[in-house]
Amino acid sequence: MKVACIQMNVRYGKVEENFANAEKWLRKAAAQGAEIAVLPEMWNTGYALKDLPKLADDKGQRTQQFLSELSQQLQLHIVGGSVATAQNEHYYNTMYVYDNTGQQQSSYDKAHLFRLMDEHLYLTAGEGTPNRFDLGNIEAGAVICYDIRFPEWLRTQALLGAKVLFVSAQWPTARVDHWKVLLQARAIENQCFVIAVNRISHKVENFNGYSMVIGPWGEILWTGNDTEEMAIIDVPFEQVDEVRNRIPVYEDRRPEIYTEVVKD
Ligand SMILES: O=C(O)CCC(=O)C(=O)O
């Protein structure tokens, strides 16, 4: 299954330019044979949090129409990164996922808000419905950026059957070492593919890519550079079962000795 990681240059507050750029990359992904395409976090507005009242997508309508039409037209599954949305005077960091017939498979609001970048002052956290969906015969889950620091949350998607975890992010360069290690750990501990797409920088911000595709044994299959780019990676999803058979972590789990602590 060929997956396009679209490491897009998101322009701060420039919604029209960002939509045009996302469309350009999605069309290119389909033309180059991708079957799934993944976008980064908050690709409509960037981190223009103070301007959300004028920039956020009202009920996500524009984004949903855009992704539905393109996924159907291009016959491309789209993990739609995330966009800033407005719902009843609250603002959310929302991911929409469409299959290659234009049907919405999932809608997810970022569950953990990142205080270091003031997200909690401007955004409302999602209610925490797990983001598990199927794309064709691929069992998938997806989270947004800071969510990867919460292993229980990714484990939730894995326990619900995800064999690949998509991550859409605007992860700052300052903590890129954390990004790499956390993604690799999430892949190893959940014995699944992790396909993580970060954005790159606009002049006033500092996000330098390093998108990653990691296998269920922890091997790094691709790392992005620090430029706007797209890679199409052939992902051997069948390897997940081999790895899970080799080390039967899921069978060896003992939830009775730790579930309550994790819930605390
Ligand atoms: O956890 C981090 O260091 C970065 C998280 C982040 O930038 C985000 O969630 O937008």
From TrEMBL:
Residues 1-237 form the CN hydrolase domain. InterPro entries: C-N_Hydrolase (IPR003010), C-N_Hydrolase_sf (IPR036526), UPF0012_CS (IPR001110). Pfam families: CN_hydrolase (PF00795). GO terms for molecular function: hydrolase activity. This is Carbon-nitrogen hydrolase. PROSITE patterns: CN_HYDROLASE, UPF0012. Belongs to the carbon-nitrogen hydrolase superfamily. NIT1/NIT2 family. It comes from Lysinibacillus alkalisoli. Keywords: Hydrolase. The keyword Transmembrane helix does not apply. The keyword Hydrolase applies. It comes from the Bacteria.
